[in-house]
Every structure is written in structure tokens, then in C-alpha cells.
Amino acid sequence: MLGNQKGLSTVVLLAVVTLLSSCSPASSFAFLPRVSRTKDAVIIDFAGVGYAPTSYGKTLYGQFANPGFVPLPSVYGWPMPFGFPSFISPSAKQIDGEYKEYLDDPLTVKQTAPKCGTGPAIMPAARDLATERVIGGADAKKGAWPFIVALKTDKGIFCSGTLLSDTIVLLAAQCLEKMSMYELSTVTVLVGFHAADLSDLPMTRRISRVVLHARYNAFTYANDIAIITLDTPVVLSRTVATACLPAASTEADQFVGVDAIILGWGAADGTATGNLKQAKTAISSNDECRADTIFGKYVSASTTCTTTGTPFTCAVDVGGPVVTLPTPGTWTVIGINSYTKDCAAGGLKTQVGSFRTWIDQYM
Fold first, then answer.
1. Which of 24-38, 108-122, 276-290, 313-327 has the lowest mean pLDDT?
2. What is the spatial distance between Cα 159 and Cα 189, in angstroms, rounded to a whole number?
3. Sign of the torsion angle spanned by Cα atoms 337, 36, 166, 176
4. Which among 103, 157, 237, 319 has most CB atoms closer than 10 A?
5. How far apart are the first and last CA of the chain?
6. Phi, psi of 354 (to 5 degrees)
């Protein structure tokens, strides 16, 4: 009897050791997302991963050319399950593998495939205050800009992005490059909301895949562009829609003098607050951008900026869109908010047309 108990204890001990070892840093590679690299992209794929990575909290440092900082190591305990559920609109139903919005009549399906570029019918008028910021600009009408999204962790909203399809978001590489794999797995994408307190939030999604430009440089903000794929398609509707993309172009000054709209929730203290704001500005030439004493040294053929003395974006608005209206009903994202010193100074924008081929390849 005693021998049987001893044998049983040994089996139990071995089982416990095996379980603990599966959660150790040495074996946590089994839970890491798949990371691959091409000549111009770093791809992190969470699809099918059962757990987020554990104790080493591996960051994306080292995946990029000349990173501008060395992130501090992150320390986490037991593995956390990945694949957190997304919130889907209660009236959304899955049909043929796609989520569609139902009308009150359950037998009637609302066709929700709006073309890109939904937004105000005309370019909003500029305000008189030359020094207005997005945080001090005009409140956007609820639902007016259905393509802007925000990214959130348990610390709050930290970046913005632009919806390009029901599963694709365009944003800045710097939004994600600092994060550990664990942190990436916990990011929530907020879709279709207006108030920063999220009181009107209809949908959230998790990240299934991340594509960052392999030549993003945190020293110079060069190639500050990324794409994320959502874990579940969003429900496209009048208030959740996609922005259009500009044609591919290597012309540095292709939008000089064009009126543009910047959007954001940013406040002077660096947090998201109030309702979504909009402000009208104009695209500057690269010569004007280079004259800026703060970010002029970062200007390249694939960046642009907005005219000095016009509205500004804040830190939480990094990654968000700069949009123009080339023709009615076709709001087009021509810029991504990149370098932003504070809410009271101009900033650098990634010129989307310069990366159109890259975007098409990794969408």
C-alpha cells in the first residue's frame, strides 16, 4: 500500500513539474505568435495562438532598422489566454461567414457594403482661431467620420488609426513598435464611437495580425506605417465605414496647398477626452516642413506636414488620419499622424501615397 502511494505521489509530482515547465520562459516559445520578416515588413501573426507569451515579455525591439531606444524588459507571470472575445453589435448576425446588421424585422437583412470615403458631403469650414488645436477645434458631428478608430490598453486610449476595410486598420508603426508581444495581444481596437469615455462604443475588436514596415526608424520617424488585421470583421454601416486610399505616388509635394481635415480626441495632458474633434488645415510643401525647428530634420520624400499656425494633433492622435476630399463622397487618407511633440506644435505626417504599393501588398 505504501509503495503504491509513493508511486502515485511520484506520478503527481512529475505531472506538476511538467505543467510548470510548460509555463516557463524556456518553453514559452510554444505560446509566442508567429513572427516572420520580408525585405520590407515584420509580420506578427496571432491567429491560432492559444496563449499570449509569458515571462520575458519580448518586445519588437531588434526587428527594425536603427531603433531609437531600448525598451525596458517586461515581466509577466502565468500565461494569459489569447483570443479574448470581441464585442459584436447585438443586432449583427453571421451570414455566410460574414457579420451583417439586421433591421428590426429579423427576416430582413440590411445591406451594409458602403463604398469607401463616407463622411461629410462637403469640406467643413475652417474656424477663425489660427491657433486652434484638435482638442480646441469643433466637435465633430457624431458618426461624421466613420473610418477613424482608436487603440486601447488597460491604461487607456494610446493611438488612433484608419479603417480601410472591415478587417484592416492603417496606423503608425510607432504605436506598436514599443510593445511586448503580450501587450500587443491585449490591445483593443475601438470602432464607431464618438465620446472618449466610450459611453457610445458599439464595437470592439482584438488584433489578429500586425504588419510593420521593416525599415521604420524610431530615430527619424522614417517609414512610420503599419497595418493591423482585426480578429473579426466589423459591421459596416453608416457610422462604421472605410476611408479611401490615394493613388501611389513618389511626388513629395503632391498635395501642397490642399485643404485637409485632422481628427482626434487628444487633450493637452496627453489623454483622450471629450468628443471627437475635427479641424481644417492645409498641406505644406516639404521645403516649408524642413524649415520647422522641431521636426524639420525628419522630413523626407515620403513625409509631409501641415501649415504652421494651424490646428495640431496630440499624442493619442498619433496613427490617426489626415484626410482630403478630392471628389464628393470620397474622403481619402493622405497622411498618418507621425511625429507629435505636444498639442501646441505642428507635427510630421507619413505620406500614404508613397506607401500605396506596400499597403496593397500587406492588406
1. 24-38
2. 10
3. negative
4. 319
5. 65
6. -70, -20
CB-facing half-sphere around the CA of 124: CA atoms within 13 A: 23
CB atoms near residue 43 (< 10 Å): 18
Report the DSSP beta bridge partners of residue 266: 272
Higher-confidence position of 102 and 145: 145
Nearest to 158 by CA among 140, 134, 132, 176: 176
Q: Which three cell numbers stand for residue 352?
A: 500614404
Question: How far from 119 is each of 26, 116, 147, CA to CA, in Å?
Answer: 50, 9, 9
Q: What is the reported pLDDT for 61?
A: 46
* CA 163/CA 241 separation, integer angstroms: 7
- CB contact at 8 A, 225 and 336: yes
pLDDT, tens digit, for every residue of 199-220? 999 999 999 999 999 999 999 9
Q: Is the pTM of this model over 0.90?
A: no
- Arithmetic mean of pLDDT, 217-243: 96
DSSP 69-119: --PPPP---SPPBS-PPPP--TTEEEETTEEEEB-SSTT-BPP--PPS--S
Closest CA relative to residue 63, chosen from 180, 230, 200 = 180
Cell numbers standing for residue 169: 486598420
Show the beta-strand stretches assigned E in the chain: 34-37, 41-45, 92-95, 98-101, 138-139, 148-153, 156-163, 168-171, 188-191, 203-213, 226-230, 259-266, 272-282, 303-305, 321-324, 332-340, 347-351
Specify burial of residue 329 (Cβ count, 10 A radius: 0-12, 13-18, 19+): middle
Residue 261 in this model has a pLDDT that exceeds 70: yes
* For residues 224-230, average pLDDT: 98
CA distance 240 to 194: 11
Residue 326 predicted with pLDDT over 80: yes
Q: Could you identify the residue written with the cell 489569447?
A: 82
Do residues 118 and 145 make contact, with C-beta atoms less than 8 angstroms apart?
no
